[in-house]
Specification:
Elements: E1 3-8, H1 18-34, E2 39-43, H2 52-60, E3 70-73, H3 80-86, E4 95-97, E5 103-107, H4 126-131, E6 139-143, H5 153-156, H6 163-171, E7 176-181, E8 188-192, E9 195-199, E10 206-208, E11 215-217, E12 221-228, E13 231-238
Parallel strand pairs: 1-2, 2-3, 5-6, 6-7, 7-9
Antiparallel strand pairs: 1-12, 4-5, 8-9, 10-11, 12-13
Length: 239
C-alpha cells in the first residue's frame, strides 16, 4: 500500500494581495487535477499577516479540493495559536500516522529566538527536541525551518536558534529518516548520516540562493511525496 501526499509551503497568503491569491489558486488547481492523494501538508508561512480573517480565507480556498485531510505547521510569519483558533478543517496536530507504518512528526519552529537574531529566525522548544529521543518507528519530521543548514550565508542566519542541539537529536535516532521543510523558497536536497532533508519551493515566489543576499525570483512550486515500504520518494512540481 502507498501513502501519497502533497506538500505546499510559504504561501504568504494575503487577502489584500492579488498575486498571493492567484498563486495559491494555481497550486490548488494543480493538486485537484491529480486527485490521487491521501493528505495535504502545509509547511508554514501560510499568511503574511497572522490575522483571523486571513487564516479563515486561506482555509476556504481549499473547500472544493477534496475530503482528504489537510495538516499545517506554523512558520516565522505565522501565529500558531491564531491558526488553531481560526481553522475549522485544517489540522494543527503534531503527529500524523500513515497506513505505511511511518509517522509524520509536525514540529513547531515558529517560536521567537531568545537571543537577538534577524527577523525570520526561529526556535524549537526543549520539550519538542527531547521528544525526538522517544521516537521508535520510522518517522518524517515536518518543520518550517531547515534542520540541516542549507542555502546562502544570509539565509542561514534566519535559521533555528538551537539548531545544533536539534541536529544532534535527529542524528542520534536511527528511526528519524527524513526531514521535510520550507522557509527557503527553493528546492534543496541534502543528506547527513541516515537522514535526508528536502526543502520545498514556495508556492508564491522563489529565492535565489546563488547570491550573497536573498533576491526574489519567479520560480515556485510544491512537492509530491510518496511513502512505500518505509521509503520516501519526493518529486518537485514546478508552477
Amino acid at each position: 500500500m502507498t501513502f501519497k501526499a502533497y506538500l505546499i509551503s510559504d504561501c504568504h497568503y494575503d487577502i489584500n494581495n492579488q498575486y498571493s491569491l492567484t498563486s495559491l489558486k494555481k497550486t490548488i488547481k494543480e493538486i485537484q487535477v491529480r486527485d490521487d492523494f491521501d493528505a495535504i501538508f502545509i509547511a508554514g508561512d501560510i499568511c503574511n499577516s497572522p490575522k483571523h480573517e486571513h487564516y479563515v480565507a486561506f482555509e476556504q480556498e481549499f473547500n472544493g479540493v477534496s475530503s482528504k485531510p489537510i495538516y499545517a505547521i506554523a512558520g516565522n510569519h505565522d501565529d500558531l495559536e491564531q491558526m488553531k483558533r481560526s481553522f475549522s478543517h485544517i489540522s494543527t496536530d503534531n503527529k500524523v500516522e500513515t497506513a505505511e507504518n511511518v509517522d509524520f512528526i509536525l514540529m513547531d519552529s515558529s517560536k521567537k529566538p531568545y537571543e537577538t537574531m534577524p527577523l525570520g529566525a526561529g526556535r524549537v522548544s526543549q520539550r519538542d527536541i527531547k521528544a525526538l529521543s522517544q521516537i521508535s518507528k520510522t518517522s518524517i519530521i515536518l518543520v518550517h525551518h531547515p534542520i540541516f543548514a542549507v542555502g546562502n550565508d544570509t539565509f542561514q542566519t534566519l535559521g533555528i536558534e538551537n539548531r545544533s542541539q536539534l541536529v544532534d537529536e535527529v542524528l542520534n535516532n536511527e528511526h528519524i529518516r527524513y526531514i521535510l521543510c520550507g522557509h527557503g523558497h527553493y528546492f534543496i536536497q541534502i543528506n547527513r548520516g541516515h537522514v535526508t532533508q528536502y526543502m520545498s519551493p514556495s508556492s508564491c515566489y522563489g529565492f535565489d540562493h546563488s547570491m550573497d543576499k536573498l533576491e526574489k525570483t519567479s520560480l515556485k512550486g510544491f512537492l509530491s511525496i510518496e511513502i512505500q515500504n518505509d521509503e520516501l520518494t519526493v518529486e518537485k512540481i514546478d508552477l
